[in-house]
Write a structure and sequence with these properties.
alpha+beta; 353 residues; 7-stranded mixed sheet; disordered N terminus
């Protein structure tokens, strides 16, 4: 794979909407514990043997070149990290394993997005490349600095566990959101005495429909992320078993794989709930619209007899007996009133209005 700069429009839009300060974090093992260096100007005299993790956050050209010289490999570009083919995300090159996962981030904001994270396993060291400041990485790095020592596999497993925990929290948030929407859809307000139970209004149902669509879209993205993450875990464990038969990375990854599979099933369950609630909301909206149509239909039936009476007595024939009577006008009004009251009584008895 050739090193090429990411296309300008893609990087420009990413930095415009999700600005992140470029940074390199180099973690090394020292006698007093784990140390972190955050700038390549401070690593000229750094012992390469003590380095076990290099974390690249929106790396610039100098940081990429420094990492390539340090490890003797070519780093994937931003465009290559976004490739949808599995062979472009999971591959081996120059003795290093490149694995790219996609996670759903910024869920707490109005603009959730998909973030690509590339893990590179080189010997007993690990490199991570990302273009979004992930909460999972911040949390794990804080925990890491409190430890005395750690290995490459422990960093890899720790990052994966933190990412999976974060994705589980996201799914729990989606579940809570769906519970709230379910109560709003199927709850009925306590009616006043003598009145029917009230269902949500059309405007409320429209807002609920928008929220359901948003949650359903995010759930679809989350399911894709979990499938991609499960594929990465399978590749990492299988390839480790092939390259290093004595490695226990496969055993450590297996529980994470089970967790991801469980999350995938839960995401599928939530997606089914979204589809069910979407059908319910659309059904309620149709019922609301049918009620409106029914009102107009009943009104047209009620006013049809008086309209007929008015039409009959509005004809201009010379020989019309009622025209000459003294109370003909009042008789017509009473007849129209009765023709309105009788249908009203009938429809009320049938609870059509």
């Amino acid at each position: 794979m050739r090193q090429q700069p990411a296309s300008f429009p893609v990087r420009f839009l990413v930095n415009l909407y999700f600005p992140v300060v470029p940074m390199i974090r180099i973690y090394r093992q020292t006698e007093s514990g784990i140390d972190r260096v955050t700038h390549i100007d401070n690593v000229e005299n750094l012992s390469f043997d003590s380095v076990f993790w290099v974390d690249l956050l929106t790396p610039d050209h100098d940081e990429i070149r420094y990492t390539e010289r340090l490890f003797g490999i070519e780093m994937p570009t931003y465009d290559e990290m976004r490739e949808i083919e599995a062979t472009s995300r999971l591959y081996m090159e120059d003795g290093a394993r490149f694995m790219t996962a996609i996670v759903l981030s910024r869920v707490d904001t109005e603009s959730p997005s998909l973030s690509e994270i590339t893990f590179v396993l080189v010997g007993h060291r690990i490199i991570t490349i990302r273009h979004s400041d992930s909460y999972s990485f911040r949390l794990f790095s804080h925990q890491l600095l409190r430890r005395k020592s750690i290995s490459r596999d422990q960093v890899f497993i720790g990052l994966l566990e933190t990412i999976v925990d974060r994705q589980a929290d996201v799914l729990e948030r989606f579940g809570s959101e769906l519970d709230r929407l379910s109560k709003a859809i199927f709850s009925r307000e306590k009616p006043e005495e003598g009145k029917r139970k009230k269902t949500p209004s059309t405007n409320t149902l429209k807002l609920i429909l928008q929220d359901l669509g948003r949650v359903g879209d995010l759930l679809t993205r989350q399911r894709d992320c979990l499938v991609n993450l499960l594929r990465l875990l399978t590749y990492a464990s299988n390839q480790e078993a092939i390259d290093e038969p004595g490695s226990n990375l496969y055993v450590k990854i297996r529980p994470i794989s089970r967790d991801v599979s469980s999350l995938s099933e839960y995401a599928a369950f939530l997606s089914n709930n979204v589809n069910f609630m979407l059908d319910a909301v659309l059904g309620l909206i149709n019922i609301e619209q049918n009620e409106i149509v029914k009102i107009f239909t009943v009104a047209s039936v009620i006013f049809m007899p008086p309209t007929l009476i008015a039409s009959v007595y509005g004809m201009n024939f010379a020989n019309m007996p009622e025209v000459q009577t003294q109370y003909g006008y009042y008789f017509a009004l009473v007849a129209m009133a009765v023709s309105i009251i009788l249908p009203l009584v009938y429809f009320r008895s049938r609870r059509l209005i």
